[in-house]
Amino acid sequence: MNQKVVSIPNQVRDGDWAILSAWGLRPAGEENSLTRKVTLPAGWELRELGSQSASNVPMGEVVTSELYDDKGRKRANVSISTAVRANAFISLCRRFTIVPQPELSENQVGFNVLDAGAVIYATDVANSHSGAITATVRESVRNVAKDWLLSHYPDYHNAGAYWD
Asked: What are the angstrom distances between the C-alpha of 9 and each of 17, 19, 20, 55, 124?
């Protein structure tokens, strides 16, 4: 497989360059104040969202991209802005996340645990018969999902953990 050279922001959120290096991203040349060139591992790709290419961004525009591994899992979000106060960052994704269950009414709450986007655990749905779910009930149900996740993947907050 071909390995691609891409520009990745120097600023890392939700992790650091040690994680990116452990994932197999290797320096591949020039570095400037915002980005550096890296070689992606075989099968990885940086998918640009929208029609602008990061290498040809008009002044004042923002280009967003997503970094995917060879298994099709999103590893990071990338943002490069060419505004007057130019900035760029890469935000690392955790493999496991907690999200609200979709398509519930305001009188219901439930949470899913996702593994790279796929549901691996769902809480029971809590129902309120007297109106909207309170913040206390919502947090209680979310804690059920969090407790399950912590018991199975205690280092889930670490963006570098559990990928392989």
From this structure: 10, 14, 11, 13, 40
**Entry pTM:** 0.84
Neighbours of 44 (CB within 10 A): 20
Distance in angstroms (rounded) separating the CA atoms of residues 86 and 114 = 34
For the chain, give the mean pLDDT. 91
Using DSSP, how many helices (H) and how many strands (E) does the chain show?
2, 13
Tokens at residue 30, please? 């020039």
Q: Where are the domains of the chain?
A: 5-92, 96-152
Q: How far is the C-alpha of 42 from the C-alpha of 21, rounded, in Å?
A: 14
Residues contacting residue 102 through CB under 8 Å, at least 6 positions apart: none
